[in-house]
Amino acid sequence: MQIYLPIAEISVPAESLALLGVAVGFLSGLFGVGGGFLATPFLLFMGIPPAVAVGTQANQLVATSVTGMLGHWRKGNVDMQLGTVMMAGGMAGSLAGVFVFRVLQHFGHIDLFIATSYIILLGTIGTMMLIESMMTLLKRHRVTEDVISVAQRPFFQKWPYKMRFIKSRLYISALLPIIIGFVGGLLVSILGIGGGFILIPAMIYVLGMPSLLVAGTSLFQIIFISAFSCILHATFNHTVDAILALILISGGVVGAQIGVRAARRIKGAPARVALALIILAVGARMIGVLFVEPSDLFALDVRL
Amino acid sequence: MSAELARDHVDISTGFNGETIALFATTDEDNADIIISIKGPESTVAVRRKGRVLGAWMNKDTVEFRRVPAYYDIASTFAPDEVFAKEQRIGFGNLDFYAENESDPETVAVFKEALIRKMQEKGFVPEEAKKVKRIDAHFFKTTFVLPPDIPTGLYTVDTYIVRGDKLLGHESRELQVGQVGFNANIYLTAQEHSFFYGLFTVFVALISGWSAFTFLRRD
What we know:
Number of strands of chain B: 13
CATH topology of the largest domain in chain B: Immunoglobulin-like
Largest sheet of chain B: 6 strands, mixed
Number of domains of chain B: 2
Strand content of chain B: 35-45%
Distance between the termini of chain A: 30 Å
Number of helices of chain A: 11
Strand order of the largest sheet of chain B: 2-13-12-4-7-9
Structural class of chain A: mainly alpha
Radius of gyration of chain A: 19 Å
CATH superfamily of the largest domain in chain B: Macroglobulin (MG2) domain
Shape of chain B: flat
CATH architecture of the largest domain in chain B: Sandwich
Shape of chain A: globular
CATH class of the largest domain in chain B: Mainly Beta
Strand content of chain A: 5-15%
Radius of gyration of chain B: 23 Å
Structural class of chain B: alpha+beta
Helix content of chain A: over 70%
Largest sheet of chain A: 2 strands, antiparallel
Largest interface: A-B, 59 and 59 residues
Oligomer: heterodimer
C-alpha cells in the first residue's frame, strides 16, 4: 500500500517503512543501540530526501530513548546530574549541527559528508565490536588492566569548572561531559543517529563512569538533545515528516518488544558478532558508493 | 477554438498513487493539427557532476538552471517543424530555462542534456510526444498520466491549433496539484506553525515511548 508522505512529498510503500521500523526496533531491543545508523541509510535508499530522513529520525529517537531510559531508570541506573551537564553541551551541539547540515546541503556536499562520516563511524565501531565479540566467543583470556580514564589524567584534572557527580562518584571538570555531549548533539543533527555508540565508550573511557550507569544516562540525555534537534529541524528546515515518524515509531515499538524477548534467548557474543557484521556491511556499502565510479555522474538537486 | 480540462485540480491525499488528467479541445478550422503541453511550476535546479577527488567520487561541478518546469508533457497530432517548435517554445528542450552561473556554451549544453535526461528518467519529462486522439475533424482529446511523485503547485496546460507552420490559435488553462485534507494540514502546519509542529511531534514521540514502556514491558 503506497502512502504519501506530506513533508517528504513522495509516495512510498507503507509496508517497507513499517518493516524498517520493526527491524530498527528489534536491534534496539536486542542490543540497546539506537538503530538510527541503519535506519538513515535505508531511508536514503528508499528515496527520502536526506534532510527529511535526518529530521524525522530525531523524532523517532525521542520515542526509542524514552522507552529505553525508563527501563534503566526503574533500576536506578541513571545519573541525572551528569546527564544534565552533558545535555547542556548536547543542546549547543544540536544547534550547531542543524546549521552545519544546512550549509552542507546548500553546497551540495551533504551526501558526501554523511557517507564519509558513516564510513568512519561504522567502520570503527564495527571493527571494535567484531574484535571484542570474537575474542569473547573464542574464549580468549583478555587481560583487563586498570584503565585510567582520560578525565583522571593530571592534565585534565587541572581543567576548570570541576563538579562532584555523586552518583557516578566522579570529581571532574564539567567541561569534559559538556564536550562529549556537544559531539553527541552534532551527530544527532547531522547524521540523524543517537550517537549512543560513540557516547557510551566516551563515557566509560573518557569520563570514567561506572558501566552500569552509562546506558541509562546516555539515553537520558539523548532524549533531550534529539527532542531539541527535532524541534530545530522542524522549525528552521521544515523537514520532520509526521506520517513517516508515526510509521517508524509504531514499527519500532513492536520490533523493540520482539528484540527484548529475543535478547533473553540469544547468547550475547554471537549476537554481537552478527551486529558487528551488519554494521561493517552497511559501512562497506557506503565505501562502495563513495569509491566506485557511479553509473551516472550527474545528479539533480531541485531548489526553490 | 476552445480547450477545457476534465478537472482543474489534482488532489493528493494519503493513498495517492498518480492521476490521469483529460483535456478536450475543439476548433472551427479544417485540416488543423493540435499540440497540447502541460508544464509544472518553475524552480531552480542545480545539476551536479561528480568527479574524482583523492580517489573518492564527489560532487565537483555544478550548473544552476533557473526557471526549470518541475514537470512537462506533450501530446500532438503531428510532429511539428523544429523552427516552429523553437519559436513557440514547444518541447522541453525549447523552454525558457537558462543556466545562471556558467557562461561556456559547451558546458551548458552538456549539463542541459544531463538535466533533460535525469528528468526523463524520473518520468517528469517525456521521451517523445504522445498522440492526441482525434474524436472527429474538429474535436480532440488527450490524456496525461501524472506519476505518484508528481511535484505540487500550479500547472499550465497549453493548447495550440496549428496548420503546417502557422499558429492558428492558443489557449491556456491552469491545473492545481496539491495536497488535500489530512496531508495538507500536516504540510501547512509544518510550514506555518513550524515550532508548534515540532513541539507536537516531540510530544507524540514522548508519549509513544512512555506508553510502549508502560504497557508493553514484561517484568
